[in-house]
């Protein structure tokens, strides 16, 4: 039995199921065309129901950002998992418990110290992990530079001593700062080439490197041929968001996630509309602030999802959203009745979804057909 949006208590997190399925299809088609396996990142979705729609399409495994996610997905039979955050000693036992329970858990390190600690832990406990060396191919975050052969081989030597080394992992984080398709394609090639360079160093030194894992949403969707990487990780592409629109890899019509909110005030003196969705439901993410078009805290839409151009959430308080026009737009905010429902498209789906415990799944008739719980700890 379906539920109308007017029956929901706001703020509520909505998923347009048609768009979600279309986005998953696009990602699957992109990886199939590229000739590379898909290992979708589930950190954005944190949902068993979403995982069931994508895991196994052009690949068998998934990527997670927490061990709690790994535990929850393992319960429903998703057991080929890459834990993509560099592991630390406090998490060794919890990760080992997953392996003991039959989960094929791959973990990540990027330095000699952690490799040594992990190798000793495995030797003492008899538990064996598949370990990837994280690469820093663009100075975006952490990892070993692919050309830093001494450091790369030092980490590999320790891991190989315990039979742990399985491959390398790269992430083109600077892709989020691009806006040109050609530049994104160039970076996708650079990302894969860097990972393959590191893999070649390992293999030439006699070390195992079965897995060459790459991926970010922009580079995963780039129209290039696979150079030899074995798998692609991406997650935001399931939903898309305003940041990805700014990068140029989606349009408003592709964004599958929104926050349903209610108008609870109109201030004619300040030319602002007030809603019940503040940073507790939208997040404080300002990912579009450095892009050509800044959406502040979100793009405003009508209840049916129709975008209202230039009308954005200018500011947020804990439980209040302040809607108005961008500077330079000399318009009066629309005549709108108190109690009117609006939708807010998010800057960053990971941050916005993290504020909620469940998704209300909306069908083509703009009615709720299901409620999907989110994994939270």
Automatic annotation (TrEMBL):
PANTHER family membership: D-SERINE DEHYDRATASE, ZGC:162816-RELATED
Family, per entry: Belongs to the DSD1 family.
Keywords of this entry: Lyase
Domain D-serine dehydratase-like, residue spans: 256-363
InterPro entries (UniProt xref): Ala_racemase_N, D-amino_acid_metab_enzyme, D-ser_dehydrat-like_dom, D-ser_dehydrat-like_sf, PLP-binding_barrel
Gene3D superfamilies: Alanine racemase, D-serine dehydratase-like domain
EC code(s) of this entry: 4.3.1.27
BP terms from Gene Ontology: D-serine catabolic process
The protein, known as: D-threo-3-hydroxyaspartate dehydratase
Pfam families: Ala_racemase_N, D-ser_dehydrat
Gene Ontology MF term list: D-serine ammonia-lyase activity
Gene designation: dthadh
Classification via SUPFAM superfamilies: PLP-binding barrel
């Amino acid at each position: 039995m379906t539920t109308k949006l007017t029956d929901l208590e706001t703020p509520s997190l909505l998923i347009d199921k048609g768009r979600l399925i279309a986005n998953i299809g696009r990602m699957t088609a992109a990886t199939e065309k590229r000739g590379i396996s898909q290992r979708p990142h589930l950190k954005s979705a944190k949902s068993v129901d979403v995982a069931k729609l994508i895991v196994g399409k052009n690949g068998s495994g998934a990527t997670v950002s927490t061990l709690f996610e790994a535990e929850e997905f393992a319960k429903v039979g998703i057991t080929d998992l890459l834990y993509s955050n560099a592991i630390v000693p406090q998490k060794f036992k919890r990760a080992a418990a997953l392996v003991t329970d039959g989960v094929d858990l791959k973990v990540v390190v990027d330095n000699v110290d952690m490799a040594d600690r992990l190798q000793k832990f495995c030797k003492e406990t008899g538990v064996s992990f598949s370990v990837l060396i994280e690469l820093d191919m663009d100075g975006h975050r952490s990892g070993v530079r692919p050309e830093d052969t001494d450091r790369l081989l030092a980490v590999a030597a320790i891991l190989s001593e315990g039979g742990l080394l399985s491959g390398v992992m790269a992430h083109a984080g600077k892709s989020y700062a691009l806006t040109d398709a050609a530049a994104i394609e160039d970076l996708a090639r650079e990302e894969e080439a860097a990972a393959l360079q590191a893999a070649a160093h390992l293999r030439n030194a006699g070390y195992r490197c079965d897995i060459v894992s790459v991926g970010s949403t922009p580079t995963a969707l780039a129209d290039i041929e696979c150079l030899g990487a074995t798998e692609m990780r991406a997650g935001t592409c399931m939903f898309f968001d305003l940041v990805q629109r700014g990068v140029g890899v989606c349009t408003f019509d592709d964004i599958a996630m929104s926050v349903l909110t209610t108008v609870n005030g109109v201030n004619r003196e300040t030319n602002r509309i007030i809603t019940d969705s503040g940073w507790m439901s939208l997040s404080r993410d300002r990912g579009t602030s450095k892009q050509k078009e800044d959406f502040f805290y979100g793009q405003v839409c009508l209840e049916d999802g129709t975008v209202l151009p230039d009308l954005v959430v200018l500011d947020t308080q804990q439980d209040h959203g302040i809607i108005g026009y961008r500077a330079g737009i000399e318009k009066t905010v629309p005549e709108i009745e108190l109690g009117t429902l609006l939708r807010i498209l998010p800057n960053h789906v990971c941050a916005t979804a993290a504020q909620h415990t469940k998704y209300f799944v909306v069908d083509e008739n703009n009615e709720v057909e299901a409620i999907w719980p989110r994994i939270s700890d």
